[in-house]
Amino acid sequence: MPLSARALGIAPSPTLAIDARAKEMTEQGADVINFGVGEPDFDTPAHIREAACRAIEQGQTRYTPVGGTAALKRAIVGKLERENGLEYDPAEIVVSVGAKHSLYNAIQVLCQEGDEVILPVPYWVSYLEQVKLAGATPRLVPTRMEDGFKLTPAALREALGPQTRILILNSPSNPTGAVYGRDELAALAEIVLQAPNLHVIADEIYEKLIFDGLEHVSLASLAPEIKARTVVINGVSKAYAMTGWRIGYAAAPRDVAKAMTALQSHSTSNPASMAQAAAAAALEGPQEPVREMVEEFARRREYILDRLAGIPGVSCPRPGGAFYAFPSVRGLLGRSFRGRTLNNATDLAAVLLEAAGVAVVPGVAFGDDTFIRLSYATSMERIREGMDRLAAVAGEITGLALRSGR
After folding, report:
1. pTM of the model
2. What are 71-89's pLDDT values in tens digits?
3. DSSP string of 154-176, one letter each residue
4. Is 234:279 a contact under the CB 8 Å cutoff?
5. DSSP readout, 215-241?
6. Which partner for 102 in 24, 250, 264, 344 could form a disulfide, CB atoms 3.0-4.6 Å apart?
7. Which residues pair with 371 in a beta bridge?
8. Are 150 and 185 in contact (CB under 8 A)?
9. Which positions ≥6 away from 112 have C-beta within 8 Å?
């Protein structure tokens, strides 16, 4: 059966493909340490699970309004005001089946054929494909490791063209962990406001996973003018270990929110009713489980950064947020491993998986195939073993014996 050009143009998610391959190998009996998956390894907090059970027992198992229940919208409005200094009306909130769905809806209603969307590189893999699905053209703007992988005002200004419609900004960032400060966001907002047709999709899904005393600042909170140009994307998956519950949300100008709701009415309709009840409990309930999770992520981050610093050919900037390390492996490339030349990070990732049982995501998924992404959303025991294996492979590549972390 012939497929549409749209379907043929979609590249599968490399992160999900690697996770699937790692799980397949595990099912076949291999001991695979999976640094590829982007989900917390913690259980959803008990009070959130209990809220979902209560909703089921109370018969909350039917359709809800397409854009979310009134209770969850109230919880989101309260959260945005309390934590982000943002005032929204419930009519400006759209609840979707995960933040990825929220992003898809926003890109679909804001982009037309021929529009350009600015993506700072490295970018999260699905941004690129979602832009292409909307018929728009990705405008890839490289960032530098020396600048913390952050888009500069000069680079943004240079990237602007007559067809530029959207800037997608992710802070804290997947895959780099970069966190934009208030002054950095203000400088970018100034450029955005000088371009009459430019809007921002601000992906803030990792906002609570932040370290080193850094502050998360929502771009839309800087001024009413930039708020009117911004769609804020967030959800409960990362902060509350609720990846499987599939609840994301967008806060947007009323006309944009209305269009996103209309689009969603013809695709998924509403998110699951009991998952919405759980999400409301997450936003309004105790936040101590989040703080405990962040403390553990911080401990793991320190360990993995220390280990990476001891591997020749590898260098890793200090991530300020999320739960990823994004080291450059340029010093390992151009060498060989057991007769195989390592031309790029994709080759290295294949060697690590097949020879050492270590799953990492090559940087090609994020726009630069000289990096790998390692998620430290796994236990410290597995991180230690995984870093020992990675160090052993790097030692064989470079001909150097590297220290164990035990």
Report:
1. 0.95
2. 999 999 999 999 999 999 9
3. HHHHHH--TTEEEEEEESS-TTT
4. no
5. ----GGGS-HHHHTTEEEEEESTTTTT
6. 250
7. 328
8. no
9. 135, 136, 165
